Amino acid sequence: MTDDMPTSHAISDLEKNRVLLDWLRWQVGQTERRVRELEIQEVQERTRRERARAEMAWKIQPQRSSSVALLHRGGCATYPDQVGLISREDAMVALAQPDIEPCEVCRPQTGLQG
Predict the structure, then answer these.
(1) The dihedral of CA 17, 21, 27, 31: what is its sign?
(2) Which backbone phi and psi does 59 adopt, to 5 degrees?
(3) Biggest CA pair distance of the chain
């Protein structure tokens, strides 16, 4: 056997690049999965922060023709609208109004005491 004869175990440039391409595709797949995981975590964290913010706030359900306006805790599910959250001080003023009553489910007045 002479030195200029190719050995049967040599890997061609084409094969090396095919293997590299397969590995890079695997890496892209791994990275895409990780990005999806991080996006889900980000949405969950944002939701948690919004829920925590709502729990530290109050909201007023407008008066309807058959009922009075109601004061709710920010996270009360009986009135899920998150627009127009108000501060503790504003909730105390609202609750003192004769035409606004506390929600009987979330009992917002308990968060206003103390």
Answers:
(1) positive
(2) -150, 155
(3) 105
- Two tokens, residue 104: 């009987």
- Name the phi and psi angles at 23, rounded to 5: -65, -40
- Predicted confidence (pLDDT) per residue in 37-59, tens digit: 999 999 999 999 988 887 788 99
Q: Can you give the pTM of this predicted structure?
A: 0.57
Residue 86's contacts (CB-CB under 8 Å, 6 or more residues apart) are 57, 58, 59, 60, 94
Joined together, the tokens standing for residue 93 give 């003023």
Q: What is the DSSP string of 57-112?
A: -EEEEPPBTTB-EEEEETT-TTS---TT-B-HHHHHHHHTSTTEEE-TTT-GGGGT
